[in-house]
Design a protein that fits this description.
397 residues; alpha/beta; TIM Barrel; two-stranded antiparallel ribbon; binds flavin mononucleotide
Length: 397
């Protein structure tokens, strides 16, 4: 991997190694992809402040997130069908996260099940739940995560209905992959992928198979999602979820100051400022542009995490400067997995950690708590909300 020096290198290798339908699935945003593009463009526009003549010899990228120790403020995001980027992808990514001293979040829509991952790794991991219509089954899933000793439940609240991704329809995105001539030819040119998926534990949604009514009769992911995801989702459901899960509760998909204030009082331990990587509401603001407003509105009442477009360690510093305690990363590690399996995910985290360390040095800070608006030239997006609660910078221990 000596020629891999940045996340974009992993992206290019994944493009060659992963079949088109699954590569496109990870790549895509919803509809015109304007929010997907805004996530990156707005992060890149944030200028870091170059500082000199400050002793930055001893730097430390470690932190705590929901009371747990992290070597670097990164969490691997929940990614549906991760095991289709590489066979047993969920297990490989979880092992890589643990090796790197960070956390992995297993998606409800994973290929390996909660129990598959729990049996294959040594330490607790996080589980992501969607609110689905069949509350009995949802309760069962949360209890399964608790029984597997998952140390946090990430409840995704921004998928009450599915935003359309054009390529998933055009590629006939199904699980297991649909046998179309075009797919067969494509897969034939990716033998390493085919072997890893053939040898993998499962070929369909591990957490759902055999449990969810209708699963066998639908042939497309979006059809299934449309049937199962629950548009009645509301704040009362959070209390119910809280009562079921003894570990930390993290609400993922908050993009509005008003919603953030409610989330802060909901009993959750953290929220994630996220627009689902530009895959849901096309036309939503970039997640980075909402981060400082939300962080400012909730103050110390709830931990604020962030995702959307994080591709470098410099991006991590930018997000922390604007009020995030840590960043979830999605595509950045998905590409590492598709390119080189577990070693590729380790590489992605290592690249970002080293970049963060260099960025900290060149902005004159040595530890995560020192990062604030002080590392930015003209901190952007900080227009105060009308009913601002606290102007104090967030405390970090
Ligand atoms: C291929 C793919 C699948 C995803 N699946 C899920 C999922 O199952 N559950 C979830 O909460 N978010 C899911 N997301 C959203 C990610 O968890 C995360 O919010 C997003 O990827 C962050 O943006 P980034 O990819 O630019 O880092 C998915 C994102 C991608 C790219």
């Amino acid at each position: 991997m000596k020629n891999i020096t940045c996340i974009e290198d992993l992206h290019q290798v994944a493009r060659r190694k992963v079949p088109r339908a699954f590569y496109d699935y990870a790549e895509a945003g919803s509809y015109t992809e304007s929010t997907l593009r805004a996530n990156r463009a707005d992060i890149e526009a944030i200028k870091l402040r170059q500082r000199v003549m400050i002793d930055v010899d001893n730097r430390d990228t470690s932190t705590t997130i929901v009371g747990q120790k992290f070597s670097v403020p990164l969490v691997l995001s929940p990614i549906g069908l991760l095991g289709m980027q590489r066979g047993d992808g969920e297990i490989l990514a979880c092992r890589a996260a643990h090796e790197a001293g960070i956390q992995f979040t297993l998606s409800t829509m994973s290929i390996c099940s909660i129990e598959d991952v729990a049996a294959a790794v040594e330490k607790p991991f996080w589980f992501q739940a969607y609110v689905i219509r069949d509350r009995g089954f949802m309760k069962e899933l949360i209890l399964r995560a608790a029984a597997a000793k998952c140390s946090a439940l990430v409840l995704t609240v921004d998928l009450q209905i599915l935003g359309q991704r054009h390529n998933d329809i055009k590629n006939g995105m199904t699980v297991p992959p649909e046998i179309r001539l075009k797919n067969v030819i494509d897969i034939a040119t990716k033998p390493a992928w085919a072997l890893s998926v053939l040898r993998g534990k499962r070929k369909t949604f591990g957490n759902l198979a055999g449990h969810v009514k209708g699963m066998e009769n639908v042939n497309s992911l979006s059809q299934w999602t449309a049937q199962q995801f629950d548009p009645t989702l509301n704040w009362k459901d959070i209390e119910w979820v809280r009562s079921l899960f003894p570990g930390k509760l993290i609400l993922k998909g908050i993009m509005d100051v008003e919603d953030a204030r409610i989330a802060a009082k909901s009993g959750a331990d953290a929220l994630v400022v996220s627009n689902h990587g530009g895959r849901q509401l096309d036309g939503a603001a970039s997640s980075i542009s909402m981060l400082p407003k939300i962080a400012d509105a909730v103050g110390d009442d709830i931990e604020v995490l962030f995702d959307g477009g994080v591709r470098t360690g410099m991006d991590v510093e930018r997000a922390i400067a604007l009020g995030a305690r840590g960043c979830f990363i999605g595509r950045s590690y998905v590409w590492g997995l598709g390119a080189y399996g577990q070693a590729g995910v380790c590489k992605a985290v290592d690249i970002m950690q080293k970049e963060l360390s260099v960025s900290m040095a060149l902005t004159g800070v040595s530890s995560i708590p020192e990062i604030g608006p002080n590392v930015l030239v003209d901190p952007p997006f900080t227009q105060k909300s009308p009913r601002k609660k606290s102007a104090k910078p967030k405390k970090r221990s």
